[in-house]
Specification:
The chain is mainly α. The protein is about 95% helix and about 0% strand. Helix 1 runs antiparallel to helix 2.
Length: about 120
């Protein structure tokens, strides 16, 4: 009877130890799995932040390129306009002298040159 009782006690202790060890290992595996998932989420969030920052940089570069292009186009337009007004002013030498016409064209030429300077400053 003692040996049966001892065998039963050993079996119960062995079962308890086995289930305790299984619970310990399972808890450890779950903890590691959760830690791995957390690390993966952190990496994914960081990748999303980097992608958003990259997209923002691309948008900013496009905006700057568009602004630069508009500034250069404004300079070219102003220079073309100034060339036309100066050409009209020089054409006055072929016509009889008229002070009023000279003053009007001279004022237009000065305004056009100032527009070119302003556009050049923008560039």
């Amino acid at each position: 009877m003692t040996s049966t009782l001892m065998t039963t006690a050993i079996a119960i202790v062995g079962t308890l130890l086995g289930s305790g060890l299984t619970a310990f290992v399972t808890a450890r595996v779950e903890r590691r799995k959760n830690e791995a998932l957390e690390r993966q989420q952190i990496r994914q969030e960081a990748a999303q932040e980097r992608a958003a920052l990259r997209e923002l940089r691309v948008e900013h570069r496009k905006w700057r390129r568009d602004r630069r292009q508009a500034a250069y186009q404004g300079l070219l337009d102003a220079a073309h306009e100034a060339q036309g007004t100066i050409w009209q002013l020089t054409r006055l030498t072929l016509e009889p002298y008229d002070q009023h016409r000279y003053d009007v064209r001279r004022g237009a030429a000065i305004d056009a040159v100032q527009a070119v300077r302003q556009a050049a400053t923008t560039v």
